């Protein structure tokens, strides 16, 4: 798993996978680690072996002091260490020896078998655990393989051919764990094996397209594809405008009749001053009668 490590004899190594089988620990360590350090750490181990996730110890194994084998397949060290110490078999460095290569292949097969239970959303973090795509191989729906630096899932049972690689055979494989690839770039199909199915999504000429038919070999924009137009985002609601404050002291206007005389307590401005009506039905000019100057 990602962010997993093994600590042994004071060394800490990145750990692709490990298993405990019949008092034997099996480790898969990437060759980016120093071979001499890996050899030294496991050969001289007399203490605990700790399995860590990030910086937290998840499991501790004691009593493992007999290094059985280290097999180097140029990308991974396959390390096995047992509990019973035997100086005659404490260290075997075998690169192309048939028995050890067989053991490594069996170890690899067990890893790939366990990987089948990893859900898709986690699988992309551990692409190394899945078999590499090859041909001719019979693939079933749901089989997952690594190709290039990506993980793919079989969506149509078939026997692979050299030109049916997962990156181009979109009718046979779909890429796992890449939300950005919801609209992969359209590739001209070369036959029924990689024609597009109904509903397949692609990008082409800067636009998004959905296939209208099965066995679609047409170019998007020519026929049998529907352009998917992103709906315009709804505008954000604008806040209601604040009501403008009303002037408490409106300018006095000479009343013309009973319909617009001022009531008792009415407030007005006149000649640069504030006035409050002291009578009802007030038609007088402030400062003359019926008004009291306010100091507010």
Any chance you could write out the topology, listing elements then pairs?
Elements: E1 4-8, E2 11-14, E3 17-21, E4 24-30, H1 35-43, E5 49-53, E6 56-61, E7 66-72, E8 76-82, E9 93-94, H2 98-115, H3 120-123, E10 138-139, E11 144-147, E12 150-154, E13 158-159, E14 173-175, E15 201-204, E16 207-211, E17 225-228, E18 250-251, E19 267-270, E20 273-277, E21 291-294
Parallel strand pairs: 7-9, 18-19
Antiparallel strand pairs: 1-2, 1-5, 3-4, 4-8, 5-6, 7-8, 10-13, 11-12, 12-14, 15-16, 16-17, 19-20, 20-21
**What is the first-to-last residue Cα distance?**
77 Å
Q: How much strand content do the residues show? A: 25-35%
What's the SSE pattern? Answer: EEEEHEEEEEHHEEEEEEEEEEEE
Spatially, the strands of the biggest sheet line up as 3-4-8-7-9
Number of strands: 21
Poorly predicted parts: 85-99
Radius of gyration, taken over Cα atoms and rounded to an integer in Å: 40 Å
Number of helices: 3
Specify the overall morphology: elongated
Mean pLDDT: 81
Largest sheet: 5 strands, mixed
Tell me roughly what share of residues is in helical segments: 10-25%
Helix/strand class: mainly beta
